[in-house]
Amino acid sequence: MPTLFRFVITLCILAALGYGAMLALVILVEPNKGEMSERIPSDRINPPSR
């Protein structure tokens, strides 16, 4: 039984670390907001006819 208890405690600690990492990402990381544009060459849109 002590082995099962140790296993459950280890899983709880790993879950708490994962939850803490996700919470830290939510609080500390700020997303970049803005428009994004990319030029596409006209030959890719309208390929030359053969």
Question: Would you give an account of this structure?
Answer:
By secondary structure, this protein is mostly helical. 62% of the residues lie in helices and 0% in strands. The chain has 2 helices and no strands. The protein has helices spanning 2-28, 42-45. The longest helix is centred in the first third of the chain and has 27 residues, at 2-28.
Unreliable spans: none
Mean of residue pLDDT?
89
Tally of individual helices: 2
- Give the number of DSSP strands: 0
Oligomer kind? single chain
In percent, how much strand structure appears in the residues?
Answer: under 5%
Give me the secondary-structure category. Answer: mainly alpha
Helix content: 55-70%
Keywords:
50 residues, 2 helices, mainly alpha
Report a brief summary of the structure.
This protein has 2 helices and no strands. The protein has about 50 residues and is mainly alpha-helical. The model has no long low-confidence stretch (mean pLDDT about 90).
Q: What layout of secondary structure does this protein have?
A:
Layout: H1 2-28, H2 42-45
